[in-house]
Task: structure prediction
Amino acid sequence: MITKDVFARRRERFYDGLGEGVALLFAAPEALYGHDTHYRYRPDPDLFYLTGFAEPEAVGVFDAEKRRYSLFVRPRDRERETWDGRRAGVKGAVDTHGAWKAHPISELAERLPELVRGHVVLHHAWGLSEASDRVVSTVLSRFRREARDPRPGPSLQKDPLHVLHELRLFKEPEEVAVMQRSADIAAQGHREAMKAARPGRHEYEIEGLLERTFRAAGASGPAYASIVASGANATILHYVENRRRIEADDLVLVDAGCELHGYASDITRTFPASGRFTKEQKRVYEIVLAAQKAAIAKAVVGNRYIDAHDVARETMVDGLLDLGLLKGRRAKILAGTSDKKFLLHRTSHWLGLDVHDRGRYNDEKGEPRLLEPGMVLTVEPGLYFREDEKGVPKEWLGIGVRIEDDVLVTQTGPRVLSEKAPKELDAVLALTAR
Ligand code: GLY
Ligand code: MN
Ligand code: MN
Result:
């Protein structure tokens, strides 16, 4: 769990980053599931990061000059709480979440002008939601009408998310501990999946097993729709139907992670359902594993984040040349795009409160940014031979292999958070032996 003092420390850094003015953060709205029920609410990662507040219908107003924040929240309501669950309310916002003042959300329009007036800079993420843009533009239009007020409205607009997402990119020790646990739970799910998946079982049975493992360990559930892709389904990158019966000689690609205290893990393993790789499957697996290890070794302070992708790609191109599935000169292939039909995606993304975590990938000049301690990224090369791929001998068609780990960049090298999910050939074969 992230404690109150950690949230307070983050707000101090947020105020430092803003420098001046007042920043607004609106909680993401609830999403309808059908016409009158909702998806389980997922706390807004940005507001949560700074306050620990996890409810919808909330707005934080962060004053970088007075270094304090106000929180607008759903008030306590016995009737509503009987139906929908407990609320922190105005008192909880102050006592538990460290707000300087809190108010019912119904008072936002009335109180917001006073909190913003007098500041030169307004930090608001325009374009994120029409509803929040409307609230802000209503306040601004009021300032225009009240032009004779001695304290004018803000004259400068900035995006608070640049500052906030840069903070989120660097994981604190408390976050690393939660992310490690999130990865440990996900890894346990993968081990269970390897033991259980066999010809005759269905993909959804494995999905159920994964998610049971997540929940039983205290995670709130999957961090994204779990992918259990057997046979040629493994060549569909975000396959989530999970309906097929697993057949003999299938590979099973499982891409699943859990969400723990808001933090995602994101792990992929690929294994033979019957405990034996075919010759072709084994060759492909070995190439992807070699590429993944080479890429992890690049997750080092001072390297470009894209170096992991580049070395993974080189390793896989070498492997494809060996197999005769790519032809021509290596340098020419690497300069071109002929490998793209087998390498369908990039190798890394940031990981944190969002599975595709926020934070920029390039520096101000547009160059790939350099890795620094505290960043967490995935390393997930894959090779895919789609069933309708032209010019590929049929024994390769329908094979898809991806191996994905979560990697923390440290002063002393890459730390693989997800290492408890086996990926070495003999370890995978030991767990899948039938
Ligand atoms: N599971 C989504 C991804 O690997 O990016
Ligand atoms: Mn994944
Ligand atoms: Mn991923």
Remarks:
- The radius of gyration is 25 Å.
- The CA atoms of residues 88 and 95 lie 9 Å apart.
- The chain is about 35% helix and 15% strand.
